[in-house]
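Subject: Sanity check before I submit

Could someone independently write out the structure tokens for this chain? I want to compare against mine line by line before I put it in a report. The sequence has 156 residues.
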Amino acid sequence: MVVAGPLFGALSLAGDIGKGYLAAWLAMHYVGTPWALVFAGIAAVIGHDFSIFLGFKGGKGIATTGGVFIAIDPVFAMILLLIWILIILVTRYFILSTLIALGGVPIMFFVLGKRIEYIAFAGLALALALYTHRDDIIRFVTGKELRTSQAVKKYL
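---
Independent answer below. Compare away.
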């Protein structure tokens, strides 16, 4: 959105979600094991975060992780999206809401009785998100992170 505007930003978001979903879906349908989904999903997120085409730099992996969650359980993924939006409205920070929502997924998966493989994916995805958001976390802790409204004004 920042670089190319809302249309291309939306297309990029769809592509990021799609790559996570497609990697997980293909692994489940062609290999057929939950661990295949986990490895393919984590590979998609790592490939997004540390792209060889961008000098091992990339995005933060949240949309790609969301695509994997859609492959695991679409209803859960939509509920998680709603929870994330609710947390944004309460905290007024993208980074805080993202980490709270993502941090709750392994616990929610455990409580819901999801497979250990999916809990492992959620934990690995959280660890990657903490790493890729490390600068954002520092800005938040030091009071320099923009609130949601400020970020939207700045980037749009």
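---
OP: Matches mine. For the report I'm noting this point. Helices lie at 6-30, 34-49, 62-72, 74-91, 94-111, 116-132, 134-141, 148-155.
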